[in-house]
C-alpha cells in the first residue's frame, strides 16, 4: 500500500502519522520533551532533542501492522515557529539553542526597532510588526548578546529546515517559515528583504539562499538513513512549514476566506487571504498551500485552554476532589455554568495570564476578573473564563475582517476545547457563526502528511476542503448573541483602560524580583 509520512515538531512533543491515498491515518506515534527555561521569559531548545524524537516517531509508525515501509513515497515536516532559528556553523552543527516562539528576551531589541526603524515601512514590506515574538528580534539579541556565537553562525535554520537537512543533506527554507520570521522577509516579493536586513543590521548571508514552496521537494532521503529506518532511499523530503498553517490546512483551509480556530493551551485563529494590513496587529506569511498566491494570516491568545487549566488548578480543588480519581472536574463545572445567562451575571474575564499577543502585543498585559461580587460562585467564574477567551478569539477575528477578506459563514474549531459543548455554544453566540468540529483528530502532522501526499501525487488536497467528517456543534442564539455584542464592547474597553495600571504593577513586580 502506498503511503506518506507527516511529522510535526511541537513545542512539547513530536508526532508522526502515516496516511494513505484517502488521507486516513494508518499509524501514529508521539514523543514528549521539555522546553528549557534557564531564566524568566527565556525559552529555548537544542535541536538534537527534536531529531531524536523524529527518528523514534518514524520508527514506531513503521512498526505498525498496516504500514509497509517499502510503500512510503515521501515525507514532510511541520514544526513549531522556531523564532531565531537554530544557529549552525559551516558544518551545519548547532552552536546555540534555538530561541523559540515563546522566548521574550529580546525586549531591548524591540525598543531599538521602535526608536530607529520606520515601522510603517517595516509593515508595508513584511506584512508584520515588531515584538519579541518575532524571530528577527531574537536574531538581533543573539548578535548583540552572544557575539561569539553570531560570528560562528553560518545559517539560522528553522526547525523543519534543520530536520530536512538531517534527512536529505540539502539546505532550504520554506516561504511560510521565512515569512514568519518577520522583519527580514519581503511578503510581496516572496524573498529576503535586503532593505530591512541592512536597516536591522542583520547579515543576509546567514539566511538560507534557497527559498522554496512548502510543497516543494528539498532533496531525497539519504541512503544511509533510509537503510537505518527501512525506507526506500531517495524518496522526496518535502519542505513543510509552520505548524499553525499546517494544522489549518489539515482542518480544510485551502482557499481564501477559509478560517479555523485552534484552541488548546493557546488559541490561534487563522484565515487564508491574498493581502494583508500590518496595522491590524496580526501575523502573516505565505500559506503552506499555494504559497506563491495565498497568505496565512493569524492571531492568537497566549493563554486560552491554559486560562481554563489555571482556573481549575487554582480554585477548583473541591470539585476535583469530589470528581474522584476517575471523574472529571469539568463534568461538575459545566452543567451549572450552562444554566447561567451570557455574561455570567455581570462578570468579565480578561485572559492575559502571560501578557498577550495579537492584536494588543503587550508582554506586560495581565489578567483580571471584573464585576466580581459575593454573589458569584465557581460556575460563574468558569463561564466567565470561557467567555473571556472567546472574546479574545472574536477580537482577532475582527482584526482579520478589517483587511477586507470575506470569511466563510461558519467557523471550524479544532483542539482540546472541542470537548466542551458549552464552550462551542459560547463561541457560536459570541462570533455569531455556526461552529463545526471534526470527529477526527486534526493536527499539524496530518497537514504535513496531506502536503506530502499531494507532492508525490498520492492525493489531491484541493479536491475538497474537508479532510475528515465535520459535525455542526452549535448555532448562534439571537438573544445570547445580542447580549454578547454588548459585553464584547465592554471587553474591548478593558485593556486600554487598565493598561497603565497593568504596566505599573508589572514594573513594581520586576523591581521586587531584583
TrEMBL record:
Residue stretches making up the Carbohydrate kinase FGGY C-terminal domain: 261-454
Keyword Kinase in record: yes
InterPro entries, A to Z: ATPase_NBD, Carb_kinase_FGGY, Carb_kinase_FGGY_CS, FGGY_C, FGGY_Carb_Kinase, FGGY_N
Any Pfam family the entry gives: FGGY_N
Carbohydrate kinase FGGY N-terminal domain mapped to chain residues: 4-249
GO terms, molecular function: kinase activity
Key word Oxidoreductase present: no
Gene3D superfamilies on file: 3.30.420.40
Sorted UniProt keywords: Kinase, Transferase
Sequence similarity: Belongs to the FGGY kinase family.
Alphabetical list of PANTHER family matching this protein: SUGAR KINASE, XYLULOSE KINASE
Protein name in UniProt: FGGY-family carbohydrate kinase
Amino acid at each position: 500500500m502506498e503511503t506518506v509520512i507527516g511529522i510535526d515538531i511541537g513545542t512539547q512533543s513530536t508526532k508522526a502519522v502515516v496516511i494513505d491515498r484517502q488521507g486516513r491515518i494508518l499509524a501514529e506515534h508521539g514523543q514528549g520533551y521539555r522546553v528549557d527555561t534557564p531564566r524568566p521569559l527565556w525559552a529555548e531548545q537544542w535541536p538534537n532533542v527534536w531529531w531524536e524524537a523524529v527518528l523514534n516517531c518514524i520508527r514506531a509508525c513503521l512498526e505498525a501492522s498496516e504500514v509497509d515501509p517499502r510503500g512510503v513515497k515521501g515525507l514532510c515536516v511541520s514544526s513549531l515557529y522556531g523564532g531565531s532559528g537554530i544557529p549552525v556553523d559551516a558544518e551545519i552543527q548547532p552552536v546555540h539553542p534555538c530561541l523559540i516562539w515563546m522566548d521574550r528576551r529580546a525586549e531591548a531589541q524591540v525598543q531599538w526597532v521602535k526608536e530607529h526603524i520606520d515601522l510603517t515601512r517595516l509593515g508595508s514590506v513584511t506584512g508584520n510588526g515588531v515584538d519579541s515574538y518575532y524571530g528577527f528580534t531574537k536574531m538581533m539579541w543573539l548578535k548583540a548578546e552572544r557575539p561569539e556565537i553570531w560570528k560562528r553562525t553560518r545559517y539560522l535554520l528553522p526547525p523543519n529546515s534543520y530536520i530536512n537537512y538531517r534527512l536529505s543533506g540539502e539546505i532550504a527554507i520554506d516561504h511560510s517559515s521565512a515569512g514568519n520570521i518577520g522583519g527580514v522577509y519581503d511578503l510581496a516579493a516572496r524573498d529576503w528583504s535586503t532593505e530591512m536586513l541592512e536597516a536591522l543590521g542583520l547579515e543576509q548571508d546567514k539566511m538560507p539562499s534557497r527559498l522554496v514552496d512548502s510543497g516543494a521537494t528539498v532533496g531525497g532521503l539519504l541512503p544511509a538513513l533510509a537503510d537505518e529506518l527501512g525506507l526506500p532511499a531517495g524518496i522526496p523530503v518535502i519542505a513543510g512549514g509552520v505548524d499553525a498553517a499546517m494544522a489549518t490546512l489539515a482542518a480544510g483551509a485551502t482557499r481564501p476566506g477559509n478560517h479555523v480556530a485552534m484552541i488548546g493551551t493557546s488559541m490561534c485563529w487563522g484565515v487564508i487571504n491574498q493581502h494583508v494590513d500590518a496595522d491590524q496587529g496580526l501575523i502573516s506569511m505565505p500559506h503552506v498551500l499555494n504559497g506563491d498566491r495565498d497568505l496565512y494570516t493569524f492571531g492568537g491568545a497566549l493563554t486560552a485552554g491554559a486560562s481554563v487549566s489555571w482556573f481549575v488548578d487554582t480554585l477548583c480543588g473541591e470539585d476535583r476532589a469530589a470528581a474522584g480519581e476517575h471523574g472529571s472536574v469539568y463534568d461538575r463545572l459545566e452543567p451549572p455554568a450552562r444554566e447561567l445567562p451570557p455574561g455570567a451575571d455581570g462578570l468579565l474575564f480578561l485572559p492575559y495570564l502571560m501578557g498577550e499577543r495579537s492584536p494588543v502585543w503587550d508582554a506586560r498585559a495581565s489578567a483580571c476578573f471584573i464585576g466580581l461580587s459575593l454573589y458569584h460562585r465557581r460556575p460563574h467564574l468558569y463561564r466567565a473564563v470561557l467567555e473571556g477567551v472567546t472574546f479574545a478569539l472574536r477580537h482577532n477575528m475582527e482584526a482579520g475582517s478589517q483587511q477586507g477578506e470575506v470569511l466563510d459563514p461558519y467557523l471550524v474549531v479544532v483542539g482540546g476545547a472541542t470537548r466542551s459543548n458549552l464552550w462551542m455554544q459560547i463561541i457560536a453566540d459570541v462570533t455569531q457563526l455556526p461552529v463545526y468540529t471534526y470527529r477526527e483528530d486534526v493536527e499539524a502532522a496530518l497537514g504535513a502528511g496531506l502536503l506530502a501526499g499531494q507532492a508525490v501525487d498520492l492525493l489531491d488536497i484541493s479536491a475538497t476542503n474537508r479532510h475528515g467528517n465535520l459535525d455542526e456543534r452549535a448555532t448562534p442564539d439571537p438573544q445570547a448573541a445580542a447580549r454578547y455584542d454588548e459585553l464584547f464592547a465592554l471587553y474591548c474597553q478593558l485593556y486600554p483602560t487598565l493598561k497603565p495600571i497593568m504596566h505599573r504593577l508589572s514594573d513594581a513586580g520586576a523591581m521586587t524580583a531584583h
